[in-house]
Structure formats: structure tokens, C-alpha cells
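#structure-requests
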Amino acid sequence: MAPPVPLFAGEWDGRWRLVARPEAAGADLTIGALGAEGLARLPDWRAAGVAGEALLTTPAVWRGAALVAAPLARAGSGYAFRRTSPLTPPWGAGDNALNPPVQSLC
């Protein structure tokens, strides 16, 4: 997996683009993999309807070691990512939890 990048970079891992964020998003935030540590902090992750193994590699927003948002595992944070890779993901190319419809940042 790719290392974390500053939130303002807007893209992570060559596969994900940040398409929505709260106005109050801080400069100290990073985008990185949800990973096992992040998934363990989300007891309700199964409600997303996506296998845990797939969620491990999805983007999450972090403030240091604190998980701020994992929008593909739990909606409602104000953050959203869109998959940008030209390759078809194993779960299909249509809109779904891991490939949500594009939303504007404005």
C-alpha cells in the first residue's frame, strides 16, 4: 500500500481521488490506508456491505494515529473518495460502496 499523503494532495495510492471534504478539514490531516488498525476502530464496518479484506486497502483520513474518517467503511463523515484507476476493480465497475458516484468539492 502507498504511504500516507497530506489531505490537500487530493489523491492517494494512484487509485483514489478525494471528491468531498468538510470545510473545516485541517492542514494536519493525511490520506492513508484504513488498514487493520483503522478497521478495528470501526465496530460497525460490516454495515457497509463490503468484505473487510477489501476495506483494509481503502482510503481513510487520519490525524496522526487518530482515525478521522473512513468514508468507504462508514458514511456520514463529510469525506468522499472516488476510485480513479482505469482497471476494473474485482467488485465491478458500477457505482457501489467502493466506487461511489462522483461528487463536487464545491
